[in-house]
Amino acid sequence: MVEMIEVGFYAIGVSAIAYLTLKFGKNLSAELKKLETEATASTSFVERKALETAITVVENVTNAVVYKLEQTDAKELREKVKAGLESRESLLRLADEAYKEITEVIADNTLDVLGSAIGDIEEYIRALIEKNVLEAKATENANTK
């Protein structure tokens, strides 16, 4: 019971960190790593391994989905937004599409394990999406210079 309460407190803290990270967009990678570390700090060995596996699965699926969308839709869509041919909302819809695809691919029990430690799974996954998009843009910019 004490562990569940501790995990609950960590989940609240993690949710706050994730929200602030999304809100201000600074140090996204560092904040995500801190969030993951805090989530694993108070769990048993088996729970910690299950959580580490869930985090890895979610990160890998998110990487793959964002990479796919970057290769197929996102780059072209950003160009259209810059040119005024599309609205910024179309990019947000693409992020929603990424979230939906990620959650459809990942098994429910993996999401349950992650949710029991982190709390707001959607916020966590959306932060991962944003992190991957920022990394893809940085790579793209580095390759065009």
Structural overview:
The chain has 145 residues and is mostly helical. The protein is 88% helix and 0% strand. It contains 6 helices and no strands.
Helix content: over 70%
Count of DSSP H/I helices: 6
Tell me the distance between the termini: 55 Å
Name the average pLDDT.
79
Count of distinct structural domains: 1
| Rg over alpha carbons | 16 Å
Shape descriptor reads elongated
Portion of residues in beta strands equals under 5%
Biggest pleated sheet:
none
SS-based class: mainly alpha
Topology summary:
Blueprint: H1 2-24, H2 28-41, H3 45-82, H4 88-105, H5 108-118, H6 121-144
Question: Short summary of the structure?
Answer:
The chain has helices at about 1-25, 30-40, 45-80, 90-105, 110-120, 120-145. It is mainly alpha-helical.
Short descriptors:
145 residues; 6 helices; 0% strand; mainly alpha
